[in-house]
Structure formats: C-alpha cells, structure tokens
Amino acid sequence: MKVRLLFLTLGMALCWAAAPVLAAPRSQLELSTADDAARYAVEKGWKYFDRGDLAGALRRFHQATIIDPSFAPGYFGKAFVYSRQKRWDLAETNYLKTLELAPNNTNAYGNLAVVYWSQGKVAMAAPYVRRSLELAPADPMVQENAAYYFFYSANYDAAWRHLNKAKALGARPDPNFVKDIRARLSNSN
C-alpha cells in the first residue's frame, strides 16, 4: 500500500510538473536567453501600453532592464512611458541610456529632442534632431519632428520645408500645427 501510494504521488508530481510546460505559450518556451526574456517583457510592455495601462507597461519595461541591463528597448519603453506622463527627467535619463546602448536609435534621438523642447530647452534638442536627420532622412516622423524643432526655434521657413518633406513621405501632421506654421510665415513676410 505504501509503495503504491508513493508511485501514485510521484506520478501526480510528474504530471503536475509537466503540465505548465505543455500548456505554456510557444513564446515562453523559446525564452532561452536573457535577451529573449527581456524581448518578451518589452513585447508585453507595448501590449499594456496599447491598452492604455501605462503602469503595467512601465512594470514590463522595467522588468526587461532588470533581466538584461544591456537591452536598449527596455529603456526606450520606460522613456516613452515617462514622456507620456510628462516625467521629463526620467524620460531623459532613459532615452540617454537607450542611446548609450543603441547609438543609432533614430526614435530615441527624436524623442529626446521632444523631451527637451517640451521643457522649453530648445537649444538642447538641436544635436538630437540633427543626428536623427542624419540617420533617417527618409523617415516621415523624423522630418515631422524636425519641423516641430524648427518651429520652436522660430525658424519657420525650415519648419515648413521639413513639414513638406514629412508630408511627401506620408506623414499626416496635425492640422493645427500646419495652421500655426502658416500663420507665423505670413507674419514674418
């Protein structure tokens, strides 16, 4: 009886231990490295973000940076959430960390420029706008960000040029922004 109970208990334990592996989603089974686990956390973070759950997104992005401290997308995600929350100092720190780890991340350059000009630090945005334009001149978002930068720098001709480039590349800028540039251009002539 004792032997039979022991085998029954061992059999149940083996089934219980195997069940989570058999039921786990395929993506979890493929998490063989820290990079894979961090990537999975970032993917989940963007899903939370898309649902409007910024706290959940931030937890997942932070989880990615703990799993793999050299995984730039985790810092980018954190910075993006902090930007949405207008927590500029934390956004700046995380965009700079993103650029330290991924020096050609065009989005981080552009978004860091937004962080600066949103705080009225337009001059600090300049090198980041320039670098994003160097890296991806055919990216409509880069061109639109440049238009905003030049607008906030009171260089309305350059803002208009970059806005037109952005539109030619498929961007659909805010109609109020287009009106603002037009108004400033007509006042300067």
Q: What is the element layout, followed by pairings?
A:
Layout: H1 2-23, H2 26-29, H3 34-50, H4 54-67, H5 72-84, H6 88-101, H7 106-118, H8 122-135, H9 140-152, H10 156-168, H11 175-188
Helix pairs in contact: 3-4, 3-5, 4-5, 5-6, 6-7, 7-8, 7-9, 8-9, 9-10, 10-11
Describe the structure concisely.
The protein has 189 residues and is mainly alpha-helical. The chain has helices at 2-23, 26-29, 34-50, 54-67, 72-84, 88-101, 106-118, 122-135, 140-152, 156-168, 175-188.
Question: What do these coordinates show?
Answer:
The protein folds into 2 domains: 33-103, Tetratricopeptide repeat domain (Serine Threonine Protein Phosphatase 5, Tetratricopeptide repeat, Alpha Horseshoe); 107-189, Tetratricopeptide repeat domain (Serine Threonine Protein Phosphatase 5, Tetratricopeptide repeat, Alpha Horseshoe). 80% of the residues lie in helices and 0% in strands. The chain contains 11 helices and no strands. α6 packs antiparallel against α7 and α7 packs antiparallel against α8 (122-135). The longest helix has 22 residues, at 2-23. It starts with a helix and ends with a helix. The relative contact order is 0.06. Mean pLDDT is 86; it is low at 1-29.
What is the total number of structural domains?
Answer: 2
Helix content: over 70%
Evaluate the radius of gyration.
24 Å
Q: So what's the CATH class of the largest domain?
A: Mainly Alpha
Question: Looking at CATH, which topology of the largest domain would you report?
Answer: Serine Threonine Protein Phosphatase 5, Tetratricopeptide repeat
Summed up, the helix count is 11
Strand percentage lies at under 5%
Shape: elongated
Secondary-structure element string: HHHHHHHHHHH
The CATH architecture of the largest domain comes to: Alpha Horseshoe
CATH superfamily of the largest domain: Tetratricopeptide repeat domain
Q: Determine the N-to-C terminus distance.
A: 99 Å
Q: Name the average pLDDT.
A: 86
Uncertain spans: 1-29
Structural class: mainly alpha
